[in-house]
Every structure is written in C-alpha cells, then in structure tokens.
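Support request from a user on the community tier.

User writes: "When I paste my structure tokens into the form, the page sometimes reloads and wipes my input. The last time it worked, I copied everything first. Here is what I submitted, just in case something in the input itself triggers the reload:"
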C-alpha cells in the first residue's frame, strides 16, 4: 500500500509505510470522532448502542445496527490492508495485536476513540521501559506487560482509567 522507502526525520530513520499507516489511522480517528460527536447519524448510532429500546422510538434501530456493522467491517478491511503487508499471513497473525488492542481498550475505556489510542501509546512506552529495566522480563516476556496491566486495571478500576462509574438507581 505504501512504498518500502525510508526517510530521515530529525536524525531518525522512519519508513514511509509507518508514516503512511500512522497518518491513515489519525485521519480515520478524526473522521470517527466527528461522525460520532457532530452528526445526527453518530447521535443515532450512539443512542441505538446505549439503549436500543428507547432509540427505537425515534430511529430505525435495525438499520442503525446494519450501519454499525458495515462501519466495523470497513474499518476491519482498512486495518487488514494496513497491517497485512507487514505480517506473514497465518491464521494467528493478529493474536499479539489483539492482546495490545484489548489492553488499550480496557485502559482507555470505550467512551472515545482517542483515549484507547493514548492508552496504546502509554502501553507501548511502559512495555519498552519494563523490558529494559526489569531484567527477568527482557525482550522475551514483553507480552506479559499488557496482560499484567489488564489484570491490575480490571481488579482496581474495572471501568478503565478514563471511564466513569455508572450508577444505576432503581
């Protein structure tokens, strides 16, 4: 999708593929943020996801669910096109990516697409720091860091670091 060349940016060599992937992800995140927070379709999708019974009074929930699934399929296709050339196609090629994605969503919460992205960056930094400064983890057990983070967050703060506690009064 992007060429395999590299560019020198402030003394660091960065591949054009990484820059293109990052730029594509940032554009998609901005479009999703605008879609969900600034349009009637986004409001209807959020209402249908939050409370389908109440949303059925003002919007066709079945069609909104189809739009949501179509949007998810389109985003999955884009993700596959961006990540596919960098990995060997095997049945389990995205297993580690799913671990990191789950950790980012648990840490950042499901309220916004921006917070899990920030959480993913924080997980990456934490993982690399732990692999360097904790000798028994090293490079081989780096995948244990997101698992430990998931465990700690689910025990201490199940709604995520940025999530809000939902109080239901009966």
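"...and here is what came back when it finally went through:"
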């Amino acid at each position: 999708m992007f060429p395999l060349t590299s560019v020198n940016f402030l003394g660091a060599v960065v591949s054009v593929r990484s820059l293109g992937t990052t730029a594509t992800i940032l554009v998609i995140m901005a479009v999703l943020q605008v879609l969900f927070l600034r349009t009637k379709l986004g409001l209807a999708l959020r209402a249908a996801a939050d409370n389908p019974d109440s949303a059925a009074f003002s919007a066709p929930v079945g069609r909104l669910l189809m739009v949501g699934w179509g949007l998810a399929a389109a985003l999955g296709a884009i993700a596959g096109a961006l990540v596919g050339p960098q990995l060997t196609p095997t049945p389990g090629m995205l297993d580690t990516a799913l671990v990191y994605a789950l950790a980012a969503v648990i840490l950042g919460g499901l309220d916004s697409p921006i917070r899990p992205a920030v959480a993913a960056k924080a997980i990456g930094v934490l993982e690399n720091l732990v692999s360097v400064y904790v000798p028994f983890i090293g490079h081989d057990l780096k995948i244990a860091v997101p698992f430990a983070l998931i465990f700690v967050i689910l025990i201490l703060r199940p709604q995520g670091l940025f999530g809000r506690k939902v109080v239901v009064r009966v």
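Agent notes: The reload is a front-end session timeout and is unrelated to the input. The mean pLDDT is 86. The chain has two domains: 1-86, 89-170. Escalated to web team.
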